[in-house]
Amino acid sequence: MQKLVVLGATGTIGRNTLDLVRRHPQRLQAYALSANRDVEALAALCIEFRPRHAVMADVASAEALRARLAAAGVPTTVHGGGAALAAIAADAEADQVMSAIVGAVGLLPTLAAVRAGKRVLIANKEPLVMAGRLLMREAEAAGATLIPIDSEHNAIFQCLPPDSRCGRAPAHVRRLILTASGGPFRETPLEALAAVTPQQAVRHPNWVMGPKISVDSATMMNKGLELIEASVLYDLPDAQLDVVIHPESAIHSLVEYVDGSMLAQLGHADMRVPIAHALAWPERWESGVGGLDLAALGRFRFEAADLQRFPCLGLARAALRAGGDAPNVLNAANEVAVQAFLEGRLSYPGITEVIDRTLAAAARRTASPAEDLDAILAVDAWARAVAQEAVGA
Predict the structure, then answer these.
(1) Theoretical Cys-Cys bridge with 8: which of 101, 110, 270, 392, CB 3.0 to 4.6 Å?
(2) Per-residue confidence (pLDDT) for residue 207, from 0 to 100
(3) Cα separation of 327 and 317, whole Å?
(4) CA neighbor of 110 nearest in space, from 325, 326, 312, 376
């Protein structure tokens, strides 16, 4: 029986993770669940799964959850605040931690779980983009096991030799190829992109996701962040990382070896597949997802990514090549810009403009690259302030 902490239990990844707990009650126990402010959603999950602990990132929401669970007779202990998130991620009784909190706020609990030597299932991109070098150092020092949940990185993990681990790709890997659906605007006339609305941008053709990651998919910033993740997870330079558009979203990524062989992982566009793989690794458990009907799919298409249509992908590649604090700055600026777009304060092309201006400001800074947590968070805060100013300009 594995005791599981689910950070971000009310989101898409969290709910899919808990579906696996339902399917494997003899193997998995929901030991602790967290959410930000959605009291009713987390209360319903606590009533069903009876976790030992529940954490609300928002302290006032924790009080409301505590009252709600007391009225329902649920004995779950409720905690509130960011420090409580980090503490529950490092809890000595927990075996696995699903890190699925969207945004930079997920960094501290992810780092806490890594430092505690847990098996950490990383579903949120931001910690690896912001502080990848720090996380990998701490994981090695603590003996933590990192397994990526992003469908692309999990696919790569599955296509590597069985004894591979995150931290370094085998020497006989030539390149990693990430697939991208192309999002909702793959065929939209370029001149129409200026008028894109948030409602259009979150309407992904293949995946059901939250609003922020859906916008990132539309701009292909998600793929840019994944390039940076792949570089961190497998210690490979930009030259050995590629992106190809694959509208069917059936092939989730590929690994090319030096002998010319190429291995691909295929499956439905359902996050339960990579989640089940990570929870069970090195075994395999039933996920509730059926196999692909290849004849019904008919064909697979592949296209090069157009940087005129997806300039955010180019900005991410530039940040990866620049190294240092550039990926952290990129992530912070993107979070600010996407939030402004979702709130109607920024146009769709404005997302790229804000990120570009923030990266340009970062390039003029003379500070040494951040290595420790406080310095990384300071860079994040600086970049957010610059991006907020750009949004208002």
Answers:
(1) 101
(2) 66
(3) 9
(4) 376
